[in-house]
Specification:
Blueprint: H1 9-27, H2 29-32, H3 34-38, E1 44-51, E2 58-65
Antiparallel strand pairs: 1-2
Amino acid sequence: MVQHHGYFQYPHLKLLIVLLRVWVRFSSADKIRRDKALAPPDVEHERIKIPSREPGRYILADLYYPPGFRASSPLFPRPPILVN
């Protein structure tokens, strides 16, 4: 049996998908930066830009320092960095 699709089926489905994507995007806005919620409040956070191979592009990275760490103190060496 051959199904005949209407002329407005594509725009109808396209609109439905766009609305679904917008709804998912705004309903899960609090889950996007979940890493900030998991870090304790006494942990210092710094966002850095790592240069990419392509000119003018960067990779954003978040550095988390241990509690009580002072960058200006000569007694503490730089902490190791874990990159995933």
